[in-house]
Automatic annotation (TrEMBL), chains A, B:
The chain crosses the membrane at residues 12-29. One of its GO terms (molecular function) is carbon-sulfur lyase activity. The lineage of its organism: Eukaryota, Viridiplantae, Streptophyta, Embryophyta, Tracheophyta. It comes from Thlaspi arvense. This is Alliinase C-terminal domain-containing protein. Pfam families: Alliinase_C.
Length: 459, 459
């Protein structure tokens, strides 16, 4: 849009605007209520010309989204057709990482509702106007929407908690280690987590050979004396099970990673209430590219030191992404209030619950048919938010190869061109692999098609 | 805008749109070419309703920008009036940090040229579509604009360099330490810089008690044997002088922090060509809130390890801010091509050069009048970019109190309610303070007014 003042004369703009009227008059004559996509196509007349980046994005990323008669998402029907898809045998399917592109469809269907507009003169300062908030770089609007979404979902206590925003929950994990480790000369504190644990924890913890903390391994076999930090990831990455601390000693300090404690992945059975709870937009709304996470922290001094770490590490967190995250969370909370029969639209969590539910149904069917691999079974529980009983349907499948397949990762990579992460990186053995359940329909469908045949044909 | 489909009927939108036509017709009848602010006010009809955040931003931040007849910035004329301003004796002026809000005025005058529009479904992925770039999370558009702006300004070599994007140059500094430190058992490598050095370097280097590196103090007095890392900040923070490495030993590894090597601060006398060069949007364009920095790195393995650190530390860098930074840098480079008599508009660097030049002229005059404090003198050099000879006009003033003022920071804080950073934090003595020259006109003018009287009246 930098060029608009020079490219577009006022007469050009009048012609554009009259064209807009004409389309509106036609629409009214047709009595069209339209859906959000139509409105996007209309309203985006201005944003689209505003930047070549945006235009590229529209051209390259805007899909033709088919809709059912009810106007609900077509994701379900489309992802059912995994056995009818055009298979491309040479294509490598990478399900190593939890890239949450499964959510693109929902945000595409929401159209302009979450379009972010940031003027060039906004957010130049390092500081946020947040009334002397302890976390001086937290955008107040984001703080407000974080509290609201947790109240709507009922998955975490926010009252009397300090909010610390981070560049993803990965930075917040390091901020928590900095805040909770003793800074005297007592040497590094051990950091432990029950295997299978998130494969990045050991790498992040030890990458700088810190004198404050060090990786202590599997919490289940931890024998160390004195203070320690235990990481509790619930639901767990990689296996999806709900967890509690396993080292029950008086000197334990707990960090709860609740990145996956959302109703699309697991029943919300209680309001989490722990000293340090970490969440991230990457896995809650799917906006991994924003790099926004937040910590809910009970103790003021812990929150102050976490803020201090983020100040030293990156002098705060992107204002642009904080403002965008606030807008996305607002739309998520609004959608929960609006969903139901009267609107015929699903809330974000209903939509994403359905997507995960269907993928797990298909994966379990494939496992049952092949008998050569298994996935975990979860007990059904009632979700206070969705008001129904269901089993966990995690963001990752912790898949175990059976009957003579010793190295499951190697088997899937060499025989079926599917990239996964071996169990050995999670403190477990290589008969296991972690598989992302959050990829786009096209990749997930090819994955299903290949494993449905692979275990029957290849061995 | 989340509510638009429900709040605005198609008839409402037609009425809105017809009103827009009417204003356009009136403007055309008046023959108004308008300026970018008028266009902003017009085009922003859609963006403004799109979110309460945007509306708040418009109301609270959109200033009445007076313009000279030529249509150039009014910053000069406005900031001349420091002795006519309404002084508020109780107001504390905080010039401790280099918050670059002086640039707000320019970006306000650019209006919608740098307005960023990001659809809610964009950039969900952790990854950037960057053709297997070594830095896998670098947005290609940002990479392109980084190369372009350095070519336009001529301040750094980009050919055969790897670009590593970071969450500000602070993260890139740590990435460089991670990449350049030995990872064997040889123990932490010393990191040194000539005093006065940036006060955050020691804190960042030692905050995690890393076994890879440790702060080694003033490079001028460094006596250590074996390998070391020397930080060369040029122009230097806090004193603004151009620098070269001072420890001339064979085992030295250099990191060049070139955050201030831009023509508004110092003459661009040569194209910087070093192994590791760090830059940041905060000080080049003033967008500190974006938290975007970049490294130009000669060695592939160093760039790979810097990328590895950022992956471990924050799993990449905000896509939103990268896309916004690309747009801002594009406008900066475009403005350099467009500036001159034929357009009557200043380029970004001409505008910001004028702003800094005037502030330094006023500060030197105040110093001369009072005789109670001094600021550094710089030798004049020819700037290859601006094509004229001038003295450095740094982002910070390294102010020295004279005649019996032992603690300069205490004096300014207690006597004149001006917060500055004491020389003792920069490895120097407390007769010095660092003062930001990048604050808004209103604060800078009050600062000038107070110090012009303070040194004459208070002692």
């Amino acid at each position: 849009m930098g060029q608009v003042p020079r490219i577009l004369s006022w007469r050009n703009m009048l012609v554009l605007s009259l064209a807009v009227n004409f389309s509106l008059i036609l629409r009214i004559l047709k009595g069209g209520g339209g859906n959000s996509l139509d409105i996007m196509a209309y309203v985006s007349i201005w944003p689209v010309v505003s930047t070549s980046l945006d235009r590229t994005a529209y051209n390259s990323m805007w899909p033709v989204v088919s809709r059912t008669a009810s106007g609900t998402s077509s994701l379900s029907s489309s992802s059912c057709n995994y056995n009818e898809i055009e298979e491309d045998d040479d294509r490598i399917i990478n399900l190593k990482l939890g890239d949450p592109t499964v959510y693109e469809r929902y945000w595409q269907e929401m159209g302009e509702m979450t379009t972010m507009v940031i003027p060039g003169w906004q957010s130049l300062s390092y500081f946020s106007d947040n009334n002397n908030n302890l976390c001086w770089f937290l955008e107040p609007e984001l703080g407000k929407e974080i509290v609201r979404v947790h109240k709507v979902v009922g998955n975490a206590v926010t009252q009397d908690r300090f909010i610390v925003v981070g560049t993803g929950s990965t930075q917040l994990y390091q901020a928590a280690l900095y805040a909770l480790s003793p800074h005297d000369d007592s040497g590094p504190i051990d950091v432990v987590s029950a295997a299978p644990f998130y494969s990045s924890y050991p790498l992040i913890t030890d990458c700088l050979k810190s004198g404050l903390y060090r990786w202590g391994g599997d919490a289940k076999t931890y024998k160390g004396e004195g203070p320690y930090i235990e990481l509790v990831t619930s639901p767990n990455n990689p296996d999806g099970f709900l967890r509690h601390s396993v080292v029950n000693r008086s000197k334990g300090i707990l960090i709860h990673d609740l990145a996956y404690y959302w109703p699309q992945y697991t029943p919300i059975t209680s309001i989490a209430d722990h000293d340090v709870m970490l969440f991230t937009a990457s896995k809650s709304t799917g906006h991994a590219g924003m790099r926004i996470g937040w910590g809910l922290v009970k103790d003021r001094e812990t929150a102050r030191k976490m803020t201090e770490y983020i100040e030293l590490n990156t002098i705060g967190v992107s204002k642009d992404s904080q403002l965008r995250a606030a807008k996305v969370l607002k739309v998520v909370s609004d959608s929960c209030g609006r969903s139901g029969n009267e609107t015929k639209t699903k809330s974000f969590f209903e939509h994403s619950y359905d997507a995960m539910s269907e993928r797990w149904k298909l994966l379990r069917q494939a496992a049952k048919n092949s008998k050569r691999f298994t996935v975990p079974d979860f007990t059904s529980q009632r979700c206070n938010f969705l008001g129904k009983v269901f089993e966990s349907q995690p963001a990752f499948a912790w898949l175990k190869c059976e009957e003579g397949i010793i190295d499951c990762e190697k088997f899937l990579r060499e025989k079926k061109k599917i990239l996964t992460k071996s169990g050995k990186y999670f403190g477990d053995d290589q008969s296991y692999v972690r598989i992302s359940m959050l990829d786009r329909d096209s990749n997930f469908n090819i994955f299903l098609s290949r494993i449905s045949s692979s275990f029957n044909s290849t061995l």
